[in-house]
């Protein structure tokens, strides 16, 4: 073979290789339908920012197996019917490999009832609810569930000698009530009063009144950020003296922005991710590096950290599938993911267990309004 022929052969081989690579490589679409406007918009946007941090970081390194990641979002205004409608539209138009970052107990219930996940064989990785979702084979959460948070909170209260508890929860969340009673029983405590709020309610007057009439030593709030903030504000204003404990879905940053230091002082919130403000592990250091490298449109937060973790789990599941990830393989890979250590935070799933982590820590708001852990 002469030099000219050899050059033509090398060029042809390079072109063929490039064509084969481009035919295999793809843009992996991840779909999110969440509240991007309204009272819960900051949570939806923060979760999305975390997902993008993970995807942008890996895309800058050339992607995974030649594939890159794109997040496509749609606003459901926190309305269950819109969650279903926007998901149908997103699935039809964008053909996502996987969904992520959904919000709301009623929203998730409506999505499952619609049959979209089953019909499309589409996994949902990462979601926030004020209830305990059913153990659906296409649901994969990257955080501890409400049961784990209730166990941590009641155990903590028991060590302080606090045994007469109150529970604030969303109406219809019977599984939460049962889990709370079970956790309290193990801690040798009891819920002496419970108050439920309607999901679309904008008033907390009756809730506050109930806890003032039969005051417990401490109140555990399993409610979204808007309800929790409104309850704390009114409860403090009317002289409520019980210690206040919130589950992670209340979003500590959102509460801090909406309430004054005096109202927030002493409030304890369970957290299901490592502290995003401290570089205490490989995960938090990588998160901090990714955040510094991006121009963020929302502040760093626990919610952003959770979105980042969800993004990292999706990336790892795609990596384990090779060059041609599919929806079916995504589900199978996630189900087999029982050993993924992000660096101080482990994620794993097994049949019947949709919560991928058991990590729960407690944060407290100090007298100067700072987050302590």
Automatic annotation (TrEMBL):
The keyword Signal applies. Residues 28-352 form the Leucine-binding protein domain. Gene3D superfamilies: 3.40.50.2300. It comes from the Bacteria. SUPFAM superfamilies: Periplasmic binding protein-like I. Residues 1-25 form the signal peptide. Keywords: Signal. Belongs to the leucine-binding protein family. PANTHER family: BLR6548 PROTEIN. This is ABC transporter substrate-binding protein. The lineage of its organism: Bacteria, Pseudomonadati, Pseudomonadota, Betaproteobacteria, Burkholderiales.
